[in-house]
Amino acid sequence: MKCSQGESFSKGELQRFGNIELNPSAGVLNYGQGLFEGLKAYRKHDGNILLFHPEENAFRLRTGAERMCMPSPSVDQLVEAVKLTVLANERWIPPLGKGSLYIRLLLMGSGAVLGLAPAPEYTFLIYVSPVGNYFKEGSAPINLIVETEMHRATPGGTGGVKTVGNYAAVLKAQSAAKEKGFSDVLYLDSVHKRYLEEVSSCNVFVVKGNVISTPAIKGTILPGITRKSIIDVARSQGFQVQERFVTVDELLDADEVFCTGTAGVIFRVGSITYLGRRVTYGSDGVGVVLLMMILFQLMMIFFQLMVVMIQMMIQK
Ligand code: PMP
């Protein structure tokens, strides 16, 4: 779909995956005026396709577009475009339990702009790819390192939206962590350097007794769609969930730690390394994290309480 400033987006069309043409002075290439979203389509055991809250991704993209000075397709246009793209690529959705179809939405300033300014023209596109596990650990616990020098976001910046530049900011710390054998990086706030923010592409939760704490949404972390659902599930199961400032000391003292994100829903954290000290988390008993994982799977796959199902069975 395309749109010039002040216009609404034109109707899009399905195209075979391939390169796209961009002017060298496109806003996205020069000034980072780009946003994306990621969600997944799963195949259900009866053959139907499940999409996890596509309208939430649409809302988040629109919030991000406002922050990035970009126009955006409407929520209805976005959800419709996702459904059409998924249906057109239905054959690429792996069988249940063997992965999912990752759906990437991309909104960018595609018009030419030389002096710093919002681009005069925008392009919205969607591409898809079958995916398996996000981390090489698969469903085994991941190992994180707390980054103390580099920050992902600063107050008043763009950390709360899914703009492409946020991900460029984490590449260096993330590559260094992976080289050292860690799964990913956990970032601290850039002001006090002691409050948890999030991992490069997921939100973090700390469990102590019956209380589950997670950093509050305050503009420097992404309001994860999985985060919100997990909070709802945990509260419905009688856990106390606190959204607040969570210190690195609380992290090190936790019973369990987990992360949430579209990439793998819930990731158990096996260890955290902070300033050379490595803390491991209990594997005895069922644990809150395993309970959450099971509940979430059950709700998603069997009860369909939390998903929008594409009702259209593919005509064969
Ligand atoms: N934080 C960041 C920085 C992310 O990129 C993601 C992945 N979108 C998340 C958190 C988790 O968000 P969600 O649950 O919507 O995938």
UniProtKB/TrEMBL annotation:
It comes from the Eukaryota. The keyword Phosphoprotein does not apply. Signal peptide: none annotated. Coiled coil: none annotated. It catalyses: L-valine + 2-oxoglutarate = 3-methyl-2-oxobutanoate + L-glutamate; L-isoleucine + 2-oxoglutarate = (S)-3-methyl-2-oxopentanoate + L-glutamate; L-leucine + 2-oxoglutarate = 4-methyl-2-oxopentanoate + L-glutamate. One of its GO terms (biological process) is branched-chain amino acid biosynthetic process. The chain crosses the membrane at residues 288-314. Its EC number is 2.6.1.42. GO terms for molecular function: branched-chain-amino-acid transaminase activity. Its cofactor is pyridoxal 5'-phosphate. GO terms for cellular component: cytoplasm. Keywords: Amino-acid biosynthesis, Aminotransferase, Branched-chain amino acid biosynthesis, Membrane, Pyridoxal phosphate, Transferase, Transmembrane, Transmembrane helix. It is an enzyme of class 2 (transferase). Belongs to the class-IV pyridoxal-phosphate-dependent aminotransferase family. This is Branched-chain-amino-acid aminotransferase. It comes from Forsythia ovata. The chain holds residues 104 to 419 of 475 of the full protein.
